[in-house]
Amino acid sequence: MFNERRTILHVDDDISITRAVAAKLKGRDIDVISINDPLQVLPLLVGRDIRVVLMDIDMPGINGLELLRKIKAYDGGIQVIMLTGLVSMNTVLDSMRGGAEACIFKPISDYHPMLEALNAAFAKYDRWWSYLEELHDRRRLLDEPLVPAVK
What we know:
There is one protein chain. This protein has helices at residues 15-25, 41-45, 64-74, 89-97, 112-143; strands at residues 7-11, 31-35, 52-55, 79-84, 102-105. By secondary structure, it is α/β, with parallel strands linked by helices. It has a single domain (7-143), classed as 3-Layer(aba) Sandwich (Rossmann fold). Helix 1 (15-25) links the parallel strand 1 and strand 2 (31-35).
C-alpha cells in the first residue's frame, strides 16, 4: 500500500520555524508532526509510519547530522531532508554523504524548493514500496503449486 497519508516529522529547536513550516504545509495534503527536542526523534519514529523527516542540523543535545546517521541506521528507508541555517559546501556534502535527500537553507523565503523536495521524497518512498509489492507478488506466484490440467 502506498503512503496515502503524507506525514512528515519536522524537527527544529526553533519553535518559530516549526510553526512557520507547519502553517505553510497546511492545506497541501501533508500532515506535520512538529517537535523541538531532537532527542525525541528516535523514540517517536519507533512504531510509527513516518517515512519523511525534515530536520535542522544545528540543534542542542544532538547534531542533526549525527541524528541523520542514527535515523538511517534505524531505518534506511526513511527519507530525510535537512533544513539548516548552516550555509556551506561542507554542510551540503555531509548531509548527502549521510543519506539526506536534500538540503534546504534557512531563512526560507521561497517554500517551493522544500515542497519539491518533500514531494520527491514521498515519490521515492512510493516507488520503493511498489518494487516491494511487485517482488512479493512474483514470489507468491513462484510458490504456488502447479495445478495439473483437468482431463
